[in-house]
Amino acid sequence: MVVITRYTVPAGEEDAFVARAEAAVEAMSRRPGFRASRIGRAADDPQLWTVVTEWDGPGAYRRALSDFDVRMAAVPLLSTAYNEPSAFEVVSRRAPEGHGAGPGGGAGTTA
């Protein structure tokens, strides 16, 4: 599953946001079921940011959020995210030709 949270970050606060987001992701990355993360900024709106994490499933994500270290680092950040659905079930996945994504992640496979 993927978790996509969006944020509005005022000009001049980008470095502080990235530091908070990296700390939150660091705490989450130590939890079972964490796969990967990305922190990004919209190309057309420099105040719109996102934190994307990938998990083995909703159970792994929910258990990670209950961990004390994650609550201390991630919950304050998550509380500033847009109030919208953020957890998505992966129903299809594709890797570029010749770049196998490992078991269950190759071209044309479903998750």
Structure description:
Keywords: Monooxygenase, Oxidoreductase. It is an enzyme of class 1 (oxidoreductase). Its EC number is 1.14.-.-. InterPro entries: ABM_dom, Dimeric_a/b-barrel. GO terms for molecular function: monooxygenase activity. The chain is of the alpha+beta class and 111 residues long. The protein has one domain (2-88): Alpha-Beta Plaits (2-Layer Sandwich). The chain contains four helices and four strands, in the order E-H-E-E-H-H-H-E. It has a four-stranded antiparallel β-sheet. A hairpin with a 6-residue loop joins strand 2 and strand 3 (48-55). The termini are close together. The model is unreliable at 103-111 (pLDDT under 50).
- Could you tell me the CATH topology label: Alpha-Beta Plaits
Radius of gyration over all CA atoms, rounded: 15 Å
What oligomeric state do these chains adopt? single chain
Instruction: Find the count of extended strands (DSSP E, 2+ residues).
Output: 4
Structural class: alpha+beta
Order of helices and strands: EHEEHHHE
Query: Tell me, what is the CATH class?
Result: Alpha Beta
Strand order of the largest sheet: 2-3-1-4
Report the mean per-residue pLDDT as an integer: 91
Number of domains in the coordinates?
1
Query: What is the architecture at the second tier of CATH?
Result: 2-Layer Sandwich
Main sheet summary:
4 strands, antiparallel
Provide the low-confidence segments as ranges: 103-111
Strand content: 15-25%
Cα end-to-end separation:
9 Å
The helicity comes to 25-40%
Number of helices: 4
Shape: globular
